[in-house]
Prior knowledge:
Layout: E1 18-26, E2 31-40, H1 47-51, H2 59-76, E3 85-89, H3 98-101, H4 103-112, E4 119-124, H5 131-143, E5 147-153, H6 160-166, E6 170-173, H7 175-178, H8 185-201, E7 204-207, H9 213-222, E8 226-227, E9 236-237, H10 245-253
Parallel strand pairs: 2-3, 3-4, 4-5, 5-6, 6-7, 7-8
Antiparallel strand pairs: 1-2, 1-8, 1-9
Helix pairs in contact: 2-4
Amino acid sequence: MAKCQGCRDGAAFPFQIRTAFQPIVDIQTGKVHAYEALVRGPNGEGAAVVLDRVTETNRYAFDQACRVSAIRTAVAAGLLETDARLSINFLPNAVYSPLACIQATLQAARETGLDPARITFEFTENERLDTRHVRSIIEAYRTMGFQTAIDDFGAGHSGLGLLANLQPDVIKLDMELVRGLDESLPRRIIVAAIVRLAKELGIKLVAEGVETRAELEAIRSAGIRYVQGFLFAKPELDVLPTIAAGAFAIAKAA
């Protein structure tokens, strides 16, 4: 795997990366809009176990391995037979040069036949970020046809300031805002305000962590079109999950 100039001295990641997938559902059509790629260990260990092994010296190798595994595994699982996008988490602090460090991703996309325009790169606001550096990544990725998303929005350090400075294509509402939305007036007021902001900024909104029909109905009432959560499917290792039959009916009815 090619390494970028500034990261070539980094250490290799100590074990094989595998990928699980969870669908993001369009509740207007009942179809899968995208699959989020979630990192797993060689025996299916959860993300926390894998992330505990990420260090300053192997962060670049880890980030590259996650991207390539996500693309190769998704295509092998049948992504090209669908219209769905692929959403990949990445570490901005692992990117030394946006143009140099994207080469392995582009190579994997070319080799598998995946159009880069179908890829969304997610980064979380839980990580402390250099805003100018992240903006340079977003701008470079946009010129190459990629989309970008802020994951776990509403749970991190920068919140609205990060949104104002970066202007991503997608915001993913943190599950703590979504959980119990149907029973919490303060949460509904906050989510309604974010919906208005996203609409005015031309940003797509995804609600994460939807687990109950009541939460889904509250999300639908708030005007959010795209949802992700156990109500529809749990992450599955190496395969693209199908939407649960009952949830599919709920989504179409919504």
